[in-house]
Amino acid sequence: MPSYHKECRYTQQSHGLSRPFDRIANYGAIIYFSFGFNYRKNKLYQKKINFNADSALEFSKATKEFGFPILEEFSVALDYYRPLANYLNSQCLTSIHNDNKLLINGEKKFPAVIEELKKAKHHIHIEYYIIEDDTIANQLADILIEKAREGVEVRLMYDDFGSNKIRRGYSNRLKENGVKVFPFFKIHHILLANRVNYRNHRKIIVIDGNVGFVGGINISDRYINTPTPQLYWRDTHVMMKGRCVSNLQFIFMTDWNFCSQENLSFSKNYFPSQFISTQTSDKIIQVVASGPDSDHPNILYALVQAIILSRKEVLITTPYFVPDDALFDAILIAQASGVKVKLLVPGISDSTIVNRVSSSFYHDLLKAGVKVYRYTKGFVHAKTMVCDDHVSFIGTANLDHRSFDLNFEVNAIFYDKELARELKNNFLIDISNSEKLNLQKWEQRSIFIKFSERFFRLISPLV
User: Fold this and answer.
1) Is 255 tagged catalytic?
2) Residue 320 contacts residue 313 (beta carbons within 8 Å)
3) Active site residue 160
């Protein structure tokens, strides 16, 4: 596990930055390693690790697609981000002939999802962290039931902690009408749950193997902004079409087969785009997953690599900013190298403690020259990054240790200048609805606030 409390040598010597309570933080590391648990190598997941390895071999045979020829053929399009693509290619299928559509907020996502679900002919695969038993969830349930009656294979997998409200009535209704439903690592006693930190945070929809959705928006009414919402919810999702959907399909199937004990085969029915020469467009997309069952925090490594490769600008949006040393130092190094780094975080948060922990990092960022904005229009829940108007990240991973090491996550990486410009434009709109932090004013925070930030940062691995 990375510690949040060690200060890198580069930061100390080159920037002259200091982080108070370093000695106390060392005790925090001792507490964490004494009482914290990292399930990456735990036997709980060992069967899944073995299963994933076996499935990967079958997947590579089924897709008949190899990433390296694509990287060679389209090296000009990748430009100086080729090392990032090379790294991800070892973790996932690199695909060409894809298309994508940016979906801002639930009011854009759910109509697109509903439209595509109604077109399903063979299968619908859904995997979500949070599904609420509310209006939009029941609207989707009606469609899933209708499709199941038409003979479409419908599978829904939910995290048993995040979606605890659908464990009975909602899921039973789906099951009784032909939808296959399974929880991810079922919790038998929810109040005594000991795996809260090791949950499935992914948000995946795959339709007929050709259409996929991924991003930060769960299935809940709160993500749909009415004309006068109680809390404006700012989030980002993306719809993808083409061969890149095979990666989402693979992630779903390995999770599903492990949890349901069903043995879905890696056949043409589930990977049709790999057997059809689709010419949707020449957009290169990679989909990378990480979690307790992966050898490395692949999403973290991809983010760090992208920041290091950037030459002009990095735009980061995250609801939870509790970076490990590698990510934090990559941001500082990029800024010191002349790259303009801008960070958008919540001003209004759903977690006071996490907001305090995040705030403890802002002083060093501001002192280094990073522009920090706190969103004031509502709660920003999007998880995106744009580098040099060239490469974009959209996914489920927050910038904190839970997403990097403890939870199951998935991000999509797009080598698409058009999408990058669209994401950047939305970022500029968002910072116009934000408060830009000022170093001098930030340093004038009360001693109590500063102490509380450092205290919660100290115990952050335990909360």
Assistant:
1) no
2) no
3) no
